[in-house]
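Example with several molecule types.
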Amino acid sequence: MLSATSQNTLPEAAPVAAVSEGAVSEATPVAAPAPVSAPAPVSAPAPAPRAAAPSSTIRSPWLIHYDASSCNGCDIEVLACLTPMYDVERFGIINTGNPKHADIFLVTGSVNERTVPVVQQIYEQMLEPKVVIACGVCACTGGIFKECYNTLGGVDVAIPVDVFAPGCAVRPEAIIDAVVAGLGILEEKRVRFAAGELREPVALPAVSAADKLVDGETVRAQHLKAAAAAQERKEHDHG
Ligand code: SF4
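Resulting structure tokens for the full complex:
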């Protein structure tokens, strides 16, 4: 049962402090939220640098083949590269008969006085950039015919050679390897040509049998020496 006191007496309310208008303290100004700055534009990632695309020449080099006095062993191997067994045409390699269409000059056999002018003419008719490949040991050095009276030596006697592919006879695999090596050189030359570094035609040497090296001396030098010795003997004999 509840007591009377507890029923009639309200609990005292907590005194409310009188607050005058002037006493209202100014509310601390709330700083306006800083404007949300626009996100920095994100630049698209730079594309990865791409290697320069190989030129169409590299993807489909055209060759011209010349037999400078080969025994035909190396020529048969060059032809084998075109047969279905090796079929280099599937890589875009075409055997052309026109020097002006060719990028690579394949030479088989050693050179002699008759073939030097032909080799040089074909070389000069080819447009820059161009590459020369000596196919077989005869084209590289003269080979087994080196000491023959009418052989002047390898193809480099007549024109600058870029790739030497030795072998007797040179294997088709070696010819294909040489062409692949030649493509790298061709690309290098193409870049130099585009930069204007290969515009001057190469001055080709005038080669004759007298220029042939025998025992480290040209035939011409040996002939002059022999003539001088003969003259000396003659003067000695006649007092
Ligand atoms: S390298 Fe051998 S196969 Fe080739 S041309 Fe000379 S001798 Fe003939």
